[in-house]
Design brief:
About 5% of the residues have low confidence. Helix 6 packs across helix 8, helix 8 runs parallel beside helix 10 and helix 9 runs antiparallel to helix 10. The chain is an alpha+beta fold. The chain has 22 helices and 11 strands. The structure holds manganese (II) ion. Manganese (II) ion binds next to loops.
């Protein structure tokens, strides 16, 4: 990697901006790290260079890339944060100080998970750019993990998979999430990774491409008829998500039909629905697979139309339709959107980000904030995932029944059991941050169980249980029995 490539990348996204500081930052880091080598044997400067390049790729601004170039200087060299401030000013110094602070947080097993998460969130709320730098730093470290002893490789991969990747997901930075996950997958389950890679990347590749051509042959003429301006691209699922799917559903690779999705990018929201109409007139849609995330965005702000159709040879194919803006957001995250464009006003950012910022505004002293970290937003909330990767925010000690009602009233009413992290769980089991929860339902069941009130935590679940349990004919009948208290 060279500073020239970084400057070139930066200029692509920020034409006309002065890049003198980038070169100065490079000189500063080069001198500070001179003589240092990485475990892989290459000069240390390569690491900050790669970190800065990744930042330039996700369209980071100038101070962020400068901070990326010098992010390891105060920690690993004779130069101090004061030196950084003297040379590059307050803004860059604050970013670098944030990274240094984050670097001190070490992962010590699952019990530390929460504590680490708290600090990550704090840093993020202070300045989202610190998280961007930290993620790019981690991505490059993962890519060069081979220089480390196996035990350390596993520890870093585990930490990334449990802490960084979920946060990237919550922030909607999918591009980083996928890359992080696949690298971790490779180090944590090397055999599984190789097996899947061989099958997916090598053996099935030609077959997949042929199938893609068939779809194009039917679709392109129809799109051309409508004068729709579009980009069509094929998106292959990343290996770790295929692996997770296989784990969850206990299926073989061949049976996972949606290993790739077709993406249509059009200029306007109207065009999205037009394109959807065209697709549905060519192929029959699969029932219950249409998702309008434009009308109802995911909690992390994700927007798109999703539909699965029966394509050539009757095979199920997923389409994702979106505008260019939605596309960029899905790659770089809502965080990017929030940072680059709207700055807070669009109402799209996750609720919890806003809460942290509000609290931070009230408490100007950060050390005070860290002391007061028993803040309700951390202690009271957990984040759990649905099998589709949607994030649900629930109060602490919530149970699968709270989750079920958070997803949909019918799911709650028809719940009979739950699968938490691939294991069968009882409906009153306490959920933990980061759990992946799936609800087992019985369609024949119409009423919730009144006993659930003993453990349901959310108001929503409790209200629904009371409301629907009353509708049971037996309950109604019982209300007329003598001696029964009115509720
Ligand atoms: Mn670093």
């Amino acid at each position: 990697m060279t500073i020239e490539r970084i400057i070139k990348k930066f200029e692509e996204n920020h034409p006309g901006e002065d890049t003198t500081m980038l070169r100065l930052a490079y000189d500063f880091a080069l001198e500070a790290h001179s003589g240092q080598l990485r475990k892989t044997g290459e000069p240390y400067i390569q690491h900050p260079l790669h970190t800065a390049f990744l930042l330039a790729e996700i369209k980071a601004d100038l101070p962020t890339i400068i901070a990326g170039l010098i992010h390891d200087v105060p920690e690993d060299t004779d130069k101090t944060i004061e030196d950084v401030q003297k040379n590059f000013g307050e803004e860059v110094a604050t970013l670098v100080a944030g990274i240094t602070k984050l670097g001190k947080i070490k992962y010590r097993g699952i019990e530390r998970y929460r504590e680490n998460l708290k600090k990550m969130f704090l840093a993020m709320a202070a300045d989202i750019r610190v998280i961007f730098i930290k993620f790019c730093d981690r991505l490059h470290n993962l890519r060069t993990l081979e220089g480390l002893p196996p035990a350390k490789q596993k520890r870093i991969a585990q930490e990334t998979l449990e802490i960084y990747a979920p946060i990237a997901g919550m922030l909607g930075i999918w591009r980083l999430k996928w890359q992080l996950e696949d690298l971790c997958f490779k180090y944590l389950y090397p055999e599984k990774f190789q097996e899947l890679e061989q099958e997916y990347e090598v053996e099935k590749k030609a077959e997949r491409n042929q199938y893609f051509q068939k779809i194009k042959k039917e679709l392109l003429p129809r799109l051309a008829e409508t004068n729709l301006n579009y980009d069509l691209e094929v998106r292959f699922k990343h290996l770790y998500s295929i692996y997770q799917k296989m784990q969850r559903k206990d299926r073989k690779f061949d049976e996972i039909y949606d290993v790739f999705a077709l993406r249509i990018i059009v200029p306007t929201i109207d065009d999205c629905y037009k394109a959807l109409g065209i697709i549905h007139t060519i192929w029959r849609p699969k029932p219950n697979r249409f998702k309008d995330y434009i009308a109802v965005p995911k909690p992390n702000g994700y927007r798109s139309l999703h539909t699965t159709i029966f394509g050539p040879e009757g095979k199920a194919v997923e389409f994702q339709i979106r505008t260019q803006e939605m596309h960029e957001e899905s790659l770089y995250g809502l965080a990017a959107h929030w940072y680059y464009k709207a700055r807070n006003q669009n109402g799209l950012q996750p609720h919890w980000v806003k809460e942290i910022i509000d609290i931070q505004k009230e408490i100007s002293d950060t050390s005070e904030l860290i002391k007061n970290i028993k803040l309700d937003i951390f202690n009271d909330r957990i984040f759990v995932f649905s099998p589709k990767g949607d994030v649900f925010e629930l109060p602490e000690y919530s149970t699968p029944i709270d989750f079920a009602y958070a997803v949909h009233t019918n799911i709650g009413n028809q719940a009979t059991g739950a699968i938490v992290n691939d294991r069968l769980a009882k409906l009153d089991q306490e959920l933990k941050n980061g759990d992946l929860v799936e609800i087992i339902t019985d369609k024949g069941r119409q009423y919730p169980n009144r006993d659930w009130l003993k453990f349901a935590k959310t108001k929503r679940a409790r209200d629904r249980i009371k409301q629907f349990a009353k509708k049971s004919p037996i309950e109604n009948f019982k209300r007329f029995l003598p001696g029964r208290k009115k509720e």
